[in-house]
Amino acid sequence: MRVSFRARQGGRRVDLVLGLLLVAGVLTGLGANTIGVDWPLDLIQLHAAGALAILLLAPWKSVVIRRGLRNPRQRRPVKALSLVLLVLVLVTIGSGLLHSTGRVEYVGPLTLMQIHVGAAIGAVAAVVAHFLGHWVRPRRTDADRRALLRLAVLGAGAAVATTAWDTWAATGRRFTGSVPKPALEVTSWINDGIQRVDAGQWRLRVGTTTFDLDEVLALPHERFTAVLDCTSGWYSRQVWDGVRLSALLRAADVEPGRSVEVRSVTGFARWFGAGTLDDVWLVTAVGGRPLSPGHGFPARIAAPGRRGFWWVKWVASVEPSSRPPWAQSVFPLS
């Protein structure tokens, strides 16, 4: 199929639409990767549709790229940046689509999600550099009736492509994009290594009260089923045993304040709002067995409806805090 433009305005419009699709891809990707509850708006479907829309525009964008590469007035660094951006976008989309099949998890030492996110960050940086050097200023004529009709056709094509992909290629992924796993995998947030905590020496500090492991196990435990949905791209439904944080605080005779800070022996911490403590557990077992070191022994947090980085492992303290729970980074930075 040979694709060409009658005027340079067509190239401008393609670049504008691609820029908008990339912004939408970043926003829907961040949203799907952060939000642990199922919204009426299916962010991961929009994320996939945006990626497939970019692929549908590829023949027209290839014309723009070839024209730029043949332009003798175009500087070599600019041409190189265009090619780098092309590669990063293709790697981002390809790794995301491959991950959605559930058939491949690793490429060498890296997971597909690590490749997907890393390439996406690189692509965003390249897009910013590209637009700084080739600022495409929107015009009123960019939104004429013909352009809007073409945009509607592109949206319809992306919807059809997304439906086809979900029907014949993608596995039963969750609304976050995570693929199912029958058992928990051992993962840690960024630089947290697996901690091997001595059960006899471990103490849990709750306000001014200290519990050893036997005292924690003697607290009123409940058995419940919850999904751990990890930001590395998988989820697993398991049966957990633990004590609600609200009950833990009552046992220690501690008032929560505006929030409760849960801190790991590694220093990793998250803050939970005082009104959410009935729905957050300090768990000591999964699948009827004590936690393993890789899964947070002797005690970790289970926070249904929140992504995996909220499920703090190797808990060392549960402290009342005056800090509002919104006053923390959306993603932990360490």
From TrEMBL:
Keywords: Membrane, Transmembrane, Transmembrane helix. Residues 194-324 form the Oxidoreductase molybdopterin-binding domain. The keyword Transmembrane helix applies. The keyword Ligase does not apply. InterPro entries: OxRdtase_Mopterin-bd_dom (IPR000572), OxRdtase_Mopterin-bd_sf (IPR036374). The chain crosses the membrane at residues 41-60, 80-100, 112-135, 147-165. It comes from the Bacteria. This is Sulfite oxidase-like oxidoreductase. It comes from Cryptosporangium arvum DSM 44712.
